[in-house]
Design brief:
Elements lengths: L7 H7 L7 H12 L4 E5 L15 E7 L5 E9 L4 H16 L11 E8 L10 E4 L16 H7 L10 E6 L10 H11 L11 H7 L7 H42 L4 H28 L4 H8 L3 H5 L8
Parallel strand pairs: 3-4, 4-6
Antiparallel strand pairs: 1-2, 2-3, 5-6
Helix pairs in contact: 2-6, 7-8, 7-9, 8-9
């Protein structure tokens, strides 16, 4: 029997920084990176400082893997259109922060950026993407390799082992079918539930530690405010990007019609576009309803009546 659990973004900001709870994060990282991970410390970097509205969901961690290699892991959440530049900036910043004056560049620790995305990002048919750095010859298409001396200096076998790695986890694209222990973690990240049959590292401790029922009144109120803020951000994201995209298409079509489409097709295209726009707004309303956003907020964002919104049915499994 599964239980309602605290969302992972809240936990990572407020609970998982406690050393007693490191086993949860260690389990997640071990399943994702396919090696046993032990957390050394939560880094005292700028990104880990608390702020009054808890807006920035990012934490930097120093860990060691099964080969005793020191790695800096950065985990972050966000809903931003320019997210690729965000993770590039964040990983570059953490590299510059860890190198003290007088240290050799060879002492820079490996950085792994793990990004848990609760919004549609890019075009692709997978829900976990992994990015590394490779240098390929322009003429013979061969990959540049480390010399034996460089392997000893960096304690690495290939160039990709030195440069930052990126993981993009698109939660919404996961189909709720856990085929392996990593999928069990993705299931938890999406549904905030852990099934009794799950065996992934860290989940047993997560099920015990992140139980909402164990929150005191003050903690529960703070958590509920956080969840309300997330729903509000989701509605703003929908209204800004999705509705803006619809209106942009309409403006583009109108410009095209002005440049030469015949009068007879103009009326039909306008009617079709208007129908499509209404249908898109209904889909947005349904998605916001599934996210348990207040009906009044949905009405304000979409322009639909409360009666129209209540007619939108939610698919089983949400």
């Amino acid at each position: 029997m599964s239980r309602e659990l605290i969302s992972f973004d809240w936990a990572i900001k407020n609970i998982l920084r406690n050393k007693a709870n490191f086993g949860i994060l260690e389990g997640f990282l071990s399943e994702l990176l396919f090696t046993d991970i032990s957390i050394i410390e939560i880094l005292e970097s700028e990104s880990n400082q608390e702020n009054k509205d808890n807006k920035y969901n990012r934490v930097d961690i120093k860990v060691v893997d099964s080969n005793q290699q020191i790695i800096i892991v950065e985990i972050q959440y966000s809903r931003e259109l320019d997210y690729l530049q965000r993770i590039l900036f964040a990983s570059s910043k953490i590299i510059s922060e860890q190198l003290n004056q007088g240290q050799a560049y060879s002492e820079i620790s490996k950085v792994i950026s793990i990004n848990i995305l609760y919004f549609d990002f890019g075009e692709g048919d997978d829900y976990i993407y992994h990015g590394t750095t490779h240098f390929i010859g322009l003429h013979n298409n061969h990959e540049l390799k480390l010399s034996e001396e460089q392997k000893k200096l960096y304690t690495a076998n290939k160039i990709a082992d030195i440069y930052p790695e990126y993981y993009l986890i698109e939660i919404r694209k996961f189909n709720n079918v856990a085929k392996d222990t990593l999928d069990e973690w993705i299931y938890f990240l999406k549904n905030e539930k852990i099934e009794d049959s799950f065996t992934a590292k860290g989940l047993e401790q997560a099920q015990e530690t992140l139980n909402i029922l164990k929150m005191d009144k003050q903690e529960r109120m703070a958590y509920e405010r956080h969840q309300t803020q997330l729903h509000h951000e989701a509605s703003l994201y929908q209204s800004t990007y999705v509705l803006g995209k619809i209106e942009g298409r309409e403006e583009g079509l109108e410009e095209g019609l002005e440049e030469g489409l015949i009068k007879g097709r103009e009326k039909g295209l306008e009617e079709g576009l208007e129908k499509g726009k209404k249908q898109s707004v209904l889909v947005i309303a349904k998605n916001m309803k599934q996210a348990k956003i207040d009906v009044k907020i949905i009405a304000e964002v979409t322009g639909l009546s409360i009666e129209q919104i209540n007619k939108q049915t939610i698919k089983p499994g949400y």
